[in-house]
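Go through this:
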Amino acid sequence: MSSLEHEIEETRQRLAGTIDELLFRASPKTIAKRETAAVKAYFVDPASGAPRTDNILKVAGGIVGAVALFVLVRKVAS
């Protein structure tokens, strides 16, 4: 095998590896696992496993506020 053929084969193998990595990263299952891990990390400290109460309270407050706004709008519209 000549030097040029060897270089072409190495480039082809690197490209195939890159394509495989991109397919893995773009697969719906991989994306779902990555996003689930990100959400869990937002609510639970990965190092200690303790809940992050500040983030939990922020989200709970937002939900309560949205529900209160929805109830208020319905009462005013009635």
